[in-house]
Amino acid sequence: MSKANPAATAAQTDPLRAFINTHGGAITPDQFRAFIASQGVTMADWARERGYTPREVSQVLNGQIKGRYGKSFAIAVAMGLKPAPARALEQCAA
What we know:
Blueprint: H1 6-13, H2 15-22, H3 29-38, H4 43-49, H5 54-61, H6 70-79, H7 86-93
Helix pairs in contact: 1-2, 4-5
């Protein structure tokens, strides 16, 4: 039996993940804004659904916080602005 690829499974269930994968694994802030608008979701709703504050998401999206580590990095990865680190993908596969 073969195990399903976690990244492929996530892309099938999450439209944003699928969109990110079609754009090479990372998208721009403008692409993120356009995608959530096309889904009829506000940035604030997207943030709250994932346990982030709208302010934190806005700051990462606008480049006021670089998203290099910690919570801001997690937000940038969730938005698709940065690719997920390899170690996170390995933990998902285990």
